[in-house]
Design a protein that fits this description.
single chain; two-stranded antiparallel ribbon; 5 helices
């Protein structure tokens, strides 16, 4: 089954095709992506999930357990290796809550 993509325009005038109701503009998201830091390693949905939870630093991330992070909408198991590596680089780890 093929999903029909619909042409959408964001508030900044970017046009893009989407097959879901998600209002996120991929062009705006790419421009918003950090150039460095652990958030730059993640896909946009995972990055937004952490940002929406107020997690913007590796130190803040270390106060959460892996289970808590996986419960955030937008985070999948594929993000965990990148997050573990970012924590390890700073000699930190996920909380054992």
């Amino acid at each position: 089954m093929t999903t029909k993509k619909v042409l959408k325009t964001c508030s900044k005038g970017h046009q893009y095709y989407k097959s879901t109701d998600c209002p996120t503009c991929p062009i705006c998201e790419e421009k918003r992506k950090p150039e460095n830091g652990f958030l730059s390693l993640l896909a946009a949905p995972a990055r937004r999930a952490l940002e929406n939870a107020g997690i913007k630093t590796v130190k803040q991330l270390s106060t959460y357990s892996e289970k808590e992070i996986l419960e955030l909408h937008g985070i999948g198991p594929g993000s965990l290796p990148k997050l573990r590596a970012a924590l390890k680089a700073k000699k930190l780890a996920f909380s054992k809550k």
